[in-house]
Amino acid sequence: MTTHTITITVNGEREQLDVPANMTLLQLLRERLALTGTKNGCEAGECGACTVLLDGEPVNSCMMLALEADGHEVTTVEGLARDGRLTLLQEAFIEHNAVQCGFCTPGMLISAHALLGRNRRPTEDEIKEALVGNLCRCTGYVRIIQAVRAAAERGGGR
Amino acid sequence: MLARPGLPRFDYVRAETPGEVVALLAERGEAARLLMGGTDLFPRMREGTARPALVIDVKHIPGMQEIAVDGQGWLTVGAAVTMNGLARHPRVRSDYPLLAEAAGMVASYQLRNRATVGGNMCNASPCADTTPATMVLEGRFVLVGPAGEREIAAVDFFRGPGLTALQRGEFLRAIRYPPPPQGAVGRYLKLGRNRLGDLAIVSVAVLGFADRTAPSGYRFRIALGAVAPVVVRAAAAEALLAGEPPGEEAFARAAEKAVEAASPIDDVRASAAYRLAMVRVLTLRGLREVFRGM
Amino acid sequence: MTRLTSDPVGKSVPRIDAVAKVTGAAMFTDDLPFGPGLLYARLVRSPHAHALIQRIDTSKALAMPGVKAVVTGKEVTALIGLYLVDRPIFAGERVRYVGEPVAGVVASSEEIAEEAARLVEVEYEPLPAVFDPFEAAQPGAPLLHPRLGEYKVANFIFPEPGTNISEHFKLRRGDVEAAWPRCAAIVEGEFRLPQIQHVPIEPHVAVALWEPSGQVTLWAASQSPFAQRDLLAQSLDIPHGNLRVISPYIGGGFGGKAGISMEACAVVLARAVMGRPVKLRMTREEEFVGTTVRQSLVARTKIGCDAEGNLLAMETAYYFGGGAYNDYGVNIVRAAGYSCTGPYYIPNVKGDSYCVYTNQPVGSAMRGFGMPEIHWGIEQIMDQLAEKIGMDPAEFRRRNCVKGGQTILTGMQMPRVDLVACIDRVTKAVNWGQKEPPSAPHKRRGKGIAIMWKAPAMPPNPGSSAIVRFNEDATVNVEIGAQDLGQGAFTVLAQIAAQALGVPGRVLRVGARLGAGGHQIQPLRVADRRQPHHLVDGQRGQGRSRGR
User: Is the ipTM of this complex over 0.90?
Assistant: First the structure.
């Protein structure tokens, strides 16, 4: 099996790593970089618990090889808060009780964060569409959608 | 055997030119698989239904991720263009909105950032979302192989569920779309178990445009997805609409004709009977909406 | 002591773990760091629904570099079970469902463990299998547990050896045979439900460490660490004081992480590589076969009423598809049995609730614990009977729902309840009786009403306690046995503790228990208090039972 030297920037920090061809980006983040906020829920691109930003765009990290991230920027949930300050979106999730078991939360935040980056005032339908790939088994989604709305109203989650 | 955790072992190579791909495929044959978005390949590798010793990444060959319009108004979509890339491209949205609409309905936003148009086509599932639009837009597939480049019509590309016209050693480089007829309006309707995110139970793409060569003054192109071994054009329905003036009556009869073009199966998502009933409903809705926009 | 806070109980406060969850800092079992010494396990699972195991050859797996141990049912003969001890940890002489663990492989990486697992050779002799619980309950059905009579069983569960019936709850009230002729209308129906999987977003995962000293630690996504600890201690002969079950954050459970599904495998595999931690995690695909499910149900019910619409009689039989083994299953069946009338007053009742072995994944707890299953049929058949006598379904329920002071099917007198007021309020809120247009032309709008009751399925004297520890600086640790899997238990208990103690919430820490040695990762729910033992050996005897 081939091994590849890659350079990636994760949450603003540059890393150079040797990775086997069959390592997924999810495995790289969790097992090599100890960024366990991103979760493994299905390894099939269905549940979205593994969602990260690749150059600002949400992707399922279980559906990407680590080596495919070579030269790219990756943002995980750990990279959302800056200097210990939560984003408006994270605060809205807390305020609106959009978090229960918390396992889907990192993926939800990443997808919603990207949504607010490209659409400052999403409608409820647009929020739902953006979160189609993030499954939640606890909350029933209503409060998550409310939290995203509230964050948008307060200034776009940045 | 259940799917394994993670991916099995394989060698990875990034191809820089079409020639490289052709050579590698010739050398390794069945032991090699092409990597585009990976959203179909990786689940299969976990399941064990795909067991490549070599994975050839073709996304980075020049042009594979590009969308371009040439002097004659033809749209060339590189095979590795992602669904989101296609859906948000300004020229696609303005000139081929049907294609943008279809691409935007695939799976989830995350998957649309990796899943490619070409990969979706070569997977050749009868419920692929971009295929009905490609059929009514009469796209042409640009294939590269040992004998060089060749182009075939979309209708000739799909041979059966999971089967395409790709010969041994060939790969799909791009899909080319002719400029749509003047004033054409299109709609893609997709019925899933839920409103967003599911595979199609039934899908219908309708393209309508004024055409003086048709006795009715109009032509409609109708493609049905997920109701036959391949995506099919509802030829009899199209012929009817070319002959009869558009309106509720003609649309209703065309919808019946469309049902006759379908040969669905029972599966976990729906029964054949339900699918047939929905072909009629979606075709009718599609025709109405398209005509309203024309 | 002066109150420093103003009645936090009843206020809506942010969850105490919300920040950890939104920043990705919350550590779930698969996130816990165990260092480079961590080993990984993968299970070999049966491809057959029912088969005898003729031969297992683990030599090729053992020969693979990186493989530390391979364990089969030959080395581990212990049985495990909550109320009925019927389940081997690795299959013994036979497999009873597709997915049943037959062997476990421990290796230095998950990849190697998986490859080695695929090299374990198992020879099976397939047997006839049965999947429908009604069929499985009939004489002549393939027998899954020929040794049912030998299993240890709690004193309130009644299996029928020689059959596939692991629990038969029987209820008789009045005389249904005498009542049928007095009925003006009778309806009969069969209602079916398949097995249902919980699908928590976090797949099951467990890390076990068996130290040479005899100290055993299990880190697992667990809804009930104390119950798991007790089961493992009894099954594997681990002194309770030597066993800790540590449950960090849990990514949803819904009952599926309440009992034992794959955790016992992890512990047994850890014993085989003594001194090294072993991680076992399920893929999503494995979740559907290898963890527990809600039981399936075939309910056959007959009810009758007089001309005024008063229910006179009910005859009902529940055939729960319990799967190949029992976890919580038999207790669910029992709870369903003593609830079988639903919240109605019926003077004559013949009820039989069977837990039936089927060649399917293990049936166990899932939200509602039998109640959604039975009300699915009850509420439909009530509607059918109301229709037969031309009565409005809401009115039928007002007339027949159980009222305070009435004696219900178990002989218990109903305390003060006002279901009628509930029905009134609901029917008023939905404009019952008024047809309303649908929200879109291609839709239809209908109105229905259902009432239900929930059996506690617990003994009348369950234990629930907390240990409150004041630290040197007057901060407080509140250690509890409950588990927070997202429903907010810790937050609420912090509010209660703050109010009871009169201290601000910020000085409270709920749930954390600093054990002696081992990993101290906050917050943890650690089950290492002694728990009374309740199972009896073979005969019926005294004993407290555990339920949910």
Answer: yes
